[in-house]
UniProtKB/TrEMBL annotation:
Alphabetical list of HAMAP family matching this protein: Thymidine_kinase (MF_00124)
List of residues binding ATP: 9-16, 87-90
Cell compartment(s), UniProt: Cytoplasm
Species whose genome carries this gene: Albidovulum litorale
Gene3D superfamilies, alphabetized: 3.30.60.20, P-loop containing nucleotide triphosphate hydrolases
EC number in record: 2.7.1.21
Name by which UniProt lists this protein: Thymidine kinase
A Pfam family matched in the record: TK
Amino acid sequence: MAKLYFHYSTMNAGKSTLLLQASHNYRERGMVTYLLTARLDDRAGAGRIASRIGIGEAADTYDTKTHLFATIAARLGQGQVDCIFLDEAQFLTKEQVWQLARAVDDLGVPVMCYGLRVDFRGELFPGSAALLALADEMREVRTICHCGKKATMVVRRGSDGKAMRDGAQVQIGGNETYVSLCRRHWREEIGDRPASDQT
């Protein structure tokens, strides 16, 4: 039975690596996958899902105007697809998440979404919030803070190297911009812990 999946984490947890590995596993068994990624994030090149460890694959792209149900239906019309893999799911709109849910329910194809849960301010991305509400299954991809605890938050560093507290929710960047931290160290970075607590 087809399901809508949401694999979420912070930056640099290996989400794209897991996506590419899962797609490879399907193909190794003779099945067909269809890959989608956000047009907005072209750090690896336009229409490409890539991992920091050096693997990558071509993908179709979407933006906030893409009707994903229609896109998936059109792809299914061209031939068999056993699973849809969608990277950068935090950039989805709420309506697009509903379109993915309808693709699962009405077209019978599993959809696996991979993305960030929260932004640098500790707030849910709209796409992630909708996936947390609608996904049939959710899986946390774990990574660690520099202290060894599980990282659940991310800071965005400005040009001065200091953690930013304000700004646009979306800013494309990698290790030079974002750092994954546990909640305690995220609070320290943004100045949310009194000096007496910072031990």
